[in-house]
């Protein structure tokens, strides 16, 4: 019997996670009263029961204090009932944006601002987050990427280290990404923009990649950067970091940064085992849009 408790910040994707678990054969329930959690677990672990995978969604709308849920979890431990806890999280900025888009009120905000409700909820749920087996930060995850991570944990049963790495190319003239943890400037490399036949292409095109990587400095930079990031990742995992955004920037975010971001992504993806990884090119199309105006 596999019993999963899904909790976390309101707006972080708990319902989506439960739906995905349901789609892969889990019997799912949402917002069950706290006092019934141990009793439910008892029923689910009966030998030869038809249900062998179950997930229970619990969030702040259940009107519980974190102490109540912690006591329920302690009760499960006392009973010797195995369970796993998935904690859904997202940055404050993303949560605020989601609430504004949905035009819903935060359950703890009352008549106050959404950000005040988020601060209160983080404080209430902090003990649960520390106890979680898996933490999924959905700040930058698309639905398909969330589904892949859920399958990674609950279908393929692979070891999960809670870190998701985003390699992000950008243009300095459009601003440094506010959520970048590490930022690297590759404007020291020759710019394909000044080569007429390369100007309309991007770092996703082989002629641009060849031009950029033919420079000895590009290859040396990539090797040193890859070694440093590979050194940092296990240490970030140990410290409990769940999101790592690596920004690589050039002037317009179209040629050099895209080329190096792709190369770093390929190098990290080859050895990927303890973390999820994705690639994003934030400004690759902005040059064409700006010129069109």
What's this model, at a glance?
The protein has 293 residues and is of the alpha/beta class. It contains ten helices and nine strands.
Explain this structure.
- This protein has 293 residues and is of the alpha/beta class.
- It has 2 domains: 2-160, P-loop containing nucleotide triphosphate hydrolases (Rossmann fold, 3-Layer(aba) Sandwich); 164-292, no CATH class.
- The protein has 10 helices and 9 strands.
- The chain has helices at 14-23, 37-44, 66-79, 92-102, 114-131, 143-154, 206-213, 216-238, 256-270, 286-292; strands spanning 2-8, 27-30, 53-57, 84-89, 134-137, 163-171, 182-185, 243-250, 275-281.
- The strands form 2 sheets. The chain has a 5-stranded parallel sheet, with helices on both faces.
- Helix 1 crosses helix 6, helix 4 crosses helix 5 and helix 8 crosses helix 9 (256-270).
- The longest helix is centred in the last third of the chain and has 23 residues, at 216-238.
- The protein is elongated, with a radius of gyration of 23 Å.
List the helices and strands and how they pair.
Blueprint lengths: L1 E7 L5 H10 L3 E4 L6 H8 L8 E5 L8 H14 L4 E6 L2 H11 L11 H18 L2 E4 L5 H12 L8 E9 L10 E4 L20 H8 L2 H23 L4 E8 L5 H15 L4 E7 L4 H7 L1
H and E string: EHEHEHEHHEHEEHHEHEH
Number of helices: 10
Number of separate domains: 2
- Determine the CATH superfamily of the largest domain: P-loop containing nucleotide triphosphate hydrolases
Question: Structural class, from helix and strand content?
Answer: alpha/beta
CATH level-1 class of the largest domain? Alpha Beta
Low-confidence stretches: none
Biggest sheet, spatial arrangement of strands: 2-3-1-4-5
Oligomeric state of the chains present here:
single chain
- Content of β-strand: 15-25%
Helix content: 40-55%
CATH-defined architecture of the largest domain: 3-Layer(aba) Sandwich
Shape descriptor reads elongated
Instruction: Note the main sheet.
Output: 5 strands, parallel
Q: What radius of gyration results from the CA coordinates?
A: 23 Å
How far apart are the termini? Answer: 59 Å
Which fold does the CATH topology of the largest domain refer to?
Answer: Rossmann fold
Q: Number of DSSP strands?
A: 9
Overall pLDDT, averaged? 87
